[in-house]
Design brief:
The complex is a heterodimer of chains A (325) and B (456). Chain A is 47% helix and 10% strand. With 325 residues, chain A is an alpha+beta fold. In chain A, α6 links the parallel β1 and β2. In chain A, 44% of the residues are buried. With 456 residues, chain B is an alpha/beta fold. Chain B has 14 helices and 16 strands. In chain B, β13 and β14 form a beta hairpin. Chain B is globular and about 65 Å long. In chain B, 49% of the residues are buried. Classes of the chains: A alpha+beta (325), B alpha/beta (456). At the A-B interface, α3, α8, α9, α10 and α12 of A face α4, β1, α5, β2 and α14 of B.
């Protein structure tokens, strides 16, 4: 059984900000649910003649595990197993081996893991599960995919962790759709507490390098944005984090899996519709990429359109700024 | 008898002398701002020369005293010596406005501000382990700086670290630009109403920049006389559901009702005493006032003794926006203030430019003695006149940060004002936001779908 010390040390106990988001969301969503029970029907069912979600076929083969495959068994922070993320799972070890664990440099391996997860694994809204199952299925939410990336890195002896944040609403969409309807606004705002986004981070050459693996190139193309590279942060580029909500953690916390189960419980119909919509976005993005001449050509074009070059700021200490302890 | 313009502006300069540095301390930037008697009537060649000298001077300063900008210029392969003639100005690297929206929190925010500052900053003591934005800004400003920020309608505040010299330039030019356009209405003895937060109780740029109003006009009342900080703005502008948000919103609602009543009483008093009046600030407040007067069937006649300067858009009240022409008509119908004395001002926290509408055509005139305006295409290259694109500018008046900015606004620039004879380019009056691109994360996908499903 996990001791309290271990729970705290590994980050299983939600951070203050997570508790604040969960509690706030629980009260707000509970109130919205109680006062709008009629809406639940719309979220639960798909009409008989509606299109159904068919899970896409896994896009890779998993090599057979054998005892010659190397893996990291350390109990050091950021290398050890955590909730839903067991780097010693046979599927993880086999894929890490195939990607070049212990044969490549840390950066080369992390990049290979990044490309594997981002390009071969598909976004699907589904409840949380162990990382081995995610690899067997080949799909998952952004947190399944981040966990897959982190497990591969840890398996290869590279420290890896989660970066979570509450995302700022997409203003254009919010104004056009949500604000116009008070009922929709109620639902949307109360769900906002639960909707935590994330990225992975791998410790390479003395620095934490960010890995935004949750969005396939096709979905990024469908949104008209560049294809994320290893080391490129989604925050500030195409996501805006609500200031003060960025949390770094070794593990997904307790309660996180329950919240996805809860959403699945109250809105299974909506979740299926999300997955259908994601497949359509992927198809649309694939067409855009093909028409532009491939991933590289699309990315180049999107980066030109995304915006002008920004200065890079390396924040340095200044003797004139005196911090009072 | 009408006062002649030179006398008029001399009077203004004497009222606001504390904003003007001693002439022996003037740099090319100060000449470009303070020397022209009418910022919008300087002959084009003369204006271009002042502009070139000011921008080149500031470019060299920022290149030499701002590490962030120096590295940026090196990346772009540009050095100050490359700027030899007027046409070279467009080679100066522009900073997208998003850069000033991308900052860390807590102590790192203080270091971020210090790192984007040009030149030496004073000693600044920051208290607390995790200071808020307001804590940091107040500490900077207590040390003699004038850090201010945008209202954050895009979801993020833009923070700009000005020194007092740059801030005074901004205040001076905002006031002078309006006063020159409403000539000969301004008079020190007129009565002013500031439709903004009290400038002494906020660091929101649009409010803070109005302290000069208290020097340019003898008697000023203020609409929002309470402290306005980032926390309060966040609570009033977001769709938060907490008790604190509800209390703030309810208090703001009560305050708005009281504010409208106070302004109506003020109008009645000044009408009775036949005083000259001037409103400056957010148009939505005046819109609420005139709506209430319309409901009550009351009108006033401030025809030759009233002026209105609006700016800052409609912010929280964006959904009640009306076209500027309808707004002016409502002001004329209800308050009697002539449409030529109801002018909108376009500015932003990132610059000191304060484009001001001309009374004749209400086109936005640019103070070209220190501002080089640009309209950029989708690849961020300068376009010619009459094209719609992203507004950008080189501001030759900012000492403490590089004011070479790509804004988030979409405009059309014309070579000349189609209505009046003031030289130099103008912007068409309605400025809109350029659309940005964002994508939904998987959580956001669920949220959107559930909201859509509820809506059906």
């Amino acid at each position: 059984m996990t001791s309290l010390h271990e729970m705290k040390d590994k980050g299983y106990i939600p951070q203050k900000m997570q508790i604040k988001l969960f509690l706030g969301g629980g009260i707000s969503l509970g109130k919205t649910l109680l006062l709008n029970m009629g809406d639940l029907k719309k979220l639960r069912v798909l009409p008989n003649d509606a299109e159904r979600y068919i899970r896409p076929k896994r896009q890779y083969d998993i090599p057979k595990f054998n005892n010659n495959m190397k893996y990291c068994e350390s109990n050091e922070k950021y290398l050890r197993p955590t909730l839903y993320c067991n780097p010693l799972d046979p599927e993880v070890i086999a894929i890490a081996d195939k990607l070049g664990a212990y044969k490549k440099t840390d950066r080369e391996f992390a990049e290979a893991a990044f490309h594997f997860v981002k390009e071969k694994m598909i976004l699907e809204i589904i409840t949380m599960n162990e990382v081995g199952e995610t690899f067997r299925r080949g799909t998952g939410t952004c947190f399944h995919l981040i966990t897959a990336f982190i497990a591969l890195c840890r398996c290869a002896g590279i420290k890896a962790r989660y970066k979570m944040f509450a995302m700022n609403m997409i203003k254009a969409w919010y104004e056009a759709t949500v604000e116009a309807d008070p009922l929709v606004k109620k639902w949307y705002d109360s769900m906002g507490y639960f909707m935590i986004e994330g990225e992975g981070e791998a410790f390479i050459d003395g620095k934490w390098v960010v890995a935004h693996v949750g969005a396939e190139a096709e979905r990024q193309a469908a949104a008209g944005i560049p294809i994320t590279k290893f080391g490129e942060d989604s925050i500030g580029n195409w996501f805006s984090a609500i200031p003060g909500t960025i949390m770094i953690s070794e593990s997904i916390p307790y309660g996180f899996g329950t919240s996805t189960k809860f959403i699945k419980k109250i809105a299974p119909g909506s979740m299926e519709r999300v997955n259908i919509s994601i497949q359509k976005q992927i198809a649309r993005g694939r067409k855009i990429i093909e028409e532009t001449g491939g991933n590289e050509a699309y990315d180049k074009k999107a980066r030109v359109e995304k915006g002008a070059k920004k200065p890079e700021l390396k924040i340095e200490r200044k003797p004139q700024i005196i911090f009072d302890n | 008898m009408t006062i002649n313009y030179d006398e008029y502006i001399k009077k203004f300069d004497s009222c606001v002398s504390k904003y003007i540095p001693k002439i022996n301390e003037w740099t090319p930037a100060d000449y470009a701002v303070y020397d022209p008697k009418d910022p919008f009537k300087v002959p084009l060649n003369e204006a271009k020369e002042l502009q070139f000298n000011a921008i080149k001077y500031q470019f060299k300063r920022h290149y030499e005293h701002n590490k962030m900008y120096n590295n940026f210029c090196k990346d772009m392969n540009i050095v100050p010596d490359d700027i030899k003639i007027y046409e070279d100005l467009e080679r100066i690297p522009l900073i997208p406005n998003e850069f000033y929206k991308d900052y860390p929190t807590g102590r790192d925010f203080a270091l971020w501000l210090a790192n984007i500052f040009t030149g030496d900053i004073p000693n600044i003591k920051i208290n607390g382990k995790n200071p808020s934005f307001d804590d940091v800004i107040n500490a900077f400003n207590a040390s003699g700086l004038a850090v201010s920020y945008s209202s954050g309608t895009s979801g993020r505040h833009t923070f700009i670290p000005r020194d007092m010299r740059s801030f005074y330039i901004s205040e001076y030019s905002a006031a002078k630009n309006v006063i020159s356009m409403i000539y000969p209405i301004w008079d020190y003895n007129m009565h002013g109403y500031l439709l903004m937060p009290n400038p002494f109780k906020t660091n929101v740029f649009a409010g803070k920049v109005c302290t000069i109003y208290y020097d340019a006009i003898k008697q000023v009342d203020v609409a929002i006389d309470r402290e306005i900080n980032t926390e309060l703005i966040k609570l009033s502008m977001t769709g938060g559901k907490g008790l604190k948000t509800k209390l703030v919103k309810s208090s703001l609602k009560r305050m708005n009702i009281k504010m409208v009543d106070n302004i109506i009483s003020w109008l009645e008093k000044n009408d009775k005493e036949k005083n000259k009046i001037a409103f400056v600030g957010a148009p939505y407040i005046l819109y609420m006032v005139t709506n209430k007067l319309k409901e009550e069937g009351k009108t006033f006649n401030f025809a030759d003794r009233g002026a209105v300067g609006t700016g800052g858009g409609w912010k929280v009240q964006e959904n009640t926006r009306m076209p500027l022409t309808s707004f002016r008509k409502q002001i004329e119908d209800i308050l009697g203030i002539k449409h030529e004395h109801c002018l909108d001002i376009y500015g932003m926290v990132e610059g000191n430019s304060w484009l001001t509408q001309c009374p004749e055509g209400h086109y936005l005139h640019i103070p070209i003695t220190y501002i080089h305006p640009l309209v950029l295409d989708k690849d961020f290259r300068p376009m010619g006149y009459n094209e719609v694109g992203r507004y950008a500018f080189l501001d030759g008046s900012t000492f403490s940060y590089p004011g070479f900015i790509i804004s988030g606004d979409q405009v059309r620039m014309l070579e000349h004002c189609p209505v009046c004879d003031r030289p130099g380019p103008v912007l068409e009056p309605e400025v809109t936001r350029a659309s940005g691109k964002e994508m939904r994360g998987c959580a956001e996908e669920i949220r959107k779908m559930i909201s859509d499903d509820v809506k059906e």
